[in-house]
Structures are given as structure tokens and as C-alpha cells.
Write a structure and sequence with these properties.
The chain is an alpha/beta fold. The protein has two domains: about 10-245, P-loop containing nucleotide triphosphate hydrolases (Rossmann fold); about 250-305. It is about 30% helix and about 25% strand. The protein has eleven helices and 14 strands. The chain has helices at about 10, 65-75, 115-125, 130-145, 160-170, 190-205, 220-225, 240-245, 260-265, 285-295, 310-325, and strands spanning about 20-30, 40-50, 55-60, 80-85, 90, 100-105, 180-185, 210-215, 225-230, 235-240, 250-255, 270-275, 275-280, 300-305. The strands form three sheets. The protein has a six-stranded mixed beta sheet, sandwiched between helices. It has a four-stranded antiparallel beta sheet with strand order 2-1-4-5, with helices on one face. A four-stranded antiparallel beta sheet has the order 12-13-11-14, with helices on one face. Residues about 10-15 and about 330-340 have low confidence and may be disordered.
Amino acid sequence: MDAIAAPPSESASLPGSPIVVQIDHLRKVYRTGFWMNRRVEPLKGISLAVHQGETFGLLGPNGAGKTTLLKLLLGLVRPSAGRGQVLGAWLGDRASHHRIGYLPENAYFYDYLTGWEFLQFSAGLFGIGGRRQKERITQLLDQVGLAQSAAKKKQLRQYSKGMLQRIGMAQALINNPDLLFLDEPMSGLDPLGRVQIREIIQTLKAEGKTIFFNSHVLSDVEQICDRVAILAQGELLCTGPIDQLLGSSNRYHVTGRGGNLELLGRWIPDLDLQADDWQGHLDQQPQDFLASLQLMGGQLIAMKLARPTLEEFLCNSCKTEASSKAPEPLTPFNLWPSQRGS
């Protein structure tokens, strides 16, 4: 079979980089109910492409179809329509699985095994043994922050939620995969754990790995993703680089303290004073403003681009999609005859 042609909007995202995940009008329908006569469609014809070395974020509310899409890409379920390729192999092809790592959202681990034994078991599934296995497990435990604790000798049933997430990340990396699928990798982690997982993802990206993940922690997504896609009600609302989706801006929101209020007002037209603190929007070059602020003895507390956050963009996109599909109000033309007025 021939490879799938990439959509025009996708093929130009990373020029020269091979496409490692590509799907074309992928659709999934389940039948439910006592008589199996109800149809649920979590995915309604999704098309996208992910390039080698890219960190790709899949976003959307609960029930949007994110986990269903991951399962289709991993070959855990079959699509109802459409087609796709992962690492050059068609969906469901087992030959490519040894190059893939996967961390599910609600993973079940053998809770009577210790952390070390669990990673030994995971390594054995990929044919990794002997000295290489020991070195790999030691390296991964250190990478996920469990090497210096007694966790590797504890049974998994004694692990906290955050520790299970870390050992789950270690098993996803045991085979040194080229492509990593992560379903809510930050779930259950404290701030330090989130930073460590984020650093791991950035290290893997520097090594040329491809990371495909979904997450509700949008601040982390903004920091580490090259591109994102937003799903809602089984449909792809948009996809692209974060800067492209949120829009570029030369305007900054600044917060500070002290300084000459008259001079500040020349830089910040909408200057808002709160005791000794102030805030507003800067439409000019920040370098010149910072130099002037230093001369007038002021202090900058924060400066950020005046554009919507990824969280605001996601919420607005989903609200717009929901409102566009709102049912029509009842009128005499779509009421039952018995409900219409005389």
C-alpha cells in the first residue's frame, strides 16, 4: 500500500522531518445498549500528522476522544473507518511496537512486584536481559527520581499515586523507544514530580524522540509542546504551533512597584495603581522600558505577552463548538401536531 498523503496544513509544519504518526479520516463507533442498538461515536473522522522529533500535545475536555485516539494509534482497538500509519507501519501492525513506549492514564501494575521486579518484567518483554537490563533499570530509576529511595525494594501496592506514575514512566522508556505515547503523564504528581517529568520529556526531545501526549495541565503543555491539537466531541477543532493558535503580540502586560508615576504613565497608557504597586499594558519596546524603569528606581515584578493563555483558548474553542451545535428552539414548525397552537 502507498503511504498516506499528509494534509497541506500538516506537511509544512516541520520541513524535512519524516512523518511518524499519520491518520486520515479516522473514525470510531461503538454500539451500546441492551440490544446494541445505540451508537456512540467518540471519534468523527480525524486527520493529522506528527513529525519525527516533535512534541505533540492532544488537548480537550473529558470525553473528547483523546484516549480513544491513543488506543487506535497503539492498535488496542480497531478503527470503524479511515486509516493511519505509525512509524511507517499500518495501524495494528505489531512489528513496530518494539519501537514504541506507552504510559496509560489509569495503568494497572502487578502490585505484588517491587519496582525493580516490575522493570525487570517490562525489560524481559522486549528481550532485554543480563547486564544491559541492570544498567537500563538503574539509569531509569535515577531518571524518574526513585533511585535514592527505598521505592525499588517496595511492592507496588505500597506506592503512592505519584510514585506509580514515575515507575510507569520508567517502564514506558525501558526499550528506549523512538515514539512515546503518554496519557496524562502529569496525573497525581506533586510540583517537583511534574518538573522532573517535564525535564525527561525535554531530554527525550533533545535526543530526537517523538512524544505524543495528552494532558489537562496546560501550563506544562505550553512549555514543552511544539504543536497542539484540540479535540471536542470527537472532532478536531484546530491544530498548529501554540504561537500560531494563540497569536503573536507585541503588547505586554506588566506589573511592577515604585518609580515615577508621571513617567510610567507615558509608557503605560492604562496604568492602574494599587497602593505602591502598578500594572498595565506596554505597547513599546520592552528593552527601552526596562532601562527607563531602572533609571527611575522602579521594580519590575512580571511581564508577559498580552495574549490569551492556552487554557483560555481551549475553553473558548470548546464553547464556540458547543454553541454552534446547540439544538434549535422549538417553533410551531418543529413541534408535534398535538403541541402546536391553534
